[in-house]
Amino acid sequence: MQNYLRSGAGVFVIWMLTACSHPTPSASIGVGNPYPVSSYVCDGTRLAVRLMGESASVSVDGAPAVELPAIGKSGTTFSNGRQTLIIEQGRMAWAVGRATPVACSGG
């Protein structure tokens, strides 16, 4: 009878330990990545933008990303001379070359 009680208690202890364990939570968006990617559409052009303080990484229509350094003191305009990303009052605009910037939606 003592062996039966001991084995029953052992099973109970193991069951309690497994019941109290918590599953590992899945990663949240942005966790482990201090610079998450935001998606925008600017007059039909798809942008994947990662703002990194001193620069912005921008992928245009799924192409490999290009780095656009911040220009000016405000840190809201990023350009490599050919492509320009502008952020003003929470709104984003995109320009290529000397073209007029077009408004973007998304984020």
What is the fold's blueprint, element by element?
Blueprint: H1 2-20, E1 38-42, E2 45-51, E3 55-60, E4 66-71, E5 77-79, E6 83-88, E7 91-96, E8 102-103, E9 105-106
Antiparallel strand pairs: 1-2, 1-9, 2-3, 3-4, 4-5, 5-6, 6-7, 7-8
Protein name: C-type lysozyme inhibitor domain-containing protein
Short description:
The chain contains 1 helix and 9 strands; from the N terminus they run αβββββββββ. It is of the alpha+beta class. Strands 8-7-6-5-4-3-2-1-9 form a 9-stranded antiparallel sheet, with no helix packed on it.
Q: Could you characterize what this model shows?
A:
With 107 residues, the protein is of the alpha+beta class. The protein has a domain at 38-106: Lipocalin, CATH 2.40.128. Helices cover 18% and strands 40% of the residues. It has one helix and nine strands; from the N terminus they run H-E-E-E-E-E-E-E-E-E. The protein has one helix at residues 2-20; strands at 38-42, 45-51, 55-60, 66-71, 77-79, 83-88, 91-96, 102-103, 105-106. Strands 8-7-6-5-4-3-2-1-9 form a nine-stranded antiparallel sheet, with no helix packed on it. A hairpin with a 3-residue loop joins strand 5 (77-79) and strand 6.
The main β sheet shows up as: 9 strands, antiparallel
Head-to-tail CA distance between termini: 68 Å
Number of helices: 1
CATH topology of the domain at 38-106: Lipocalin
Helix content: 10-25%
Strand content: 35-45%
Mean pLDDT: 80
Shape: globular
Number of strands: 9
Radius of gyration using CA atoms only: 26 Å
Determine the structural class based on helices, strands and strand pairing. alpha+beta
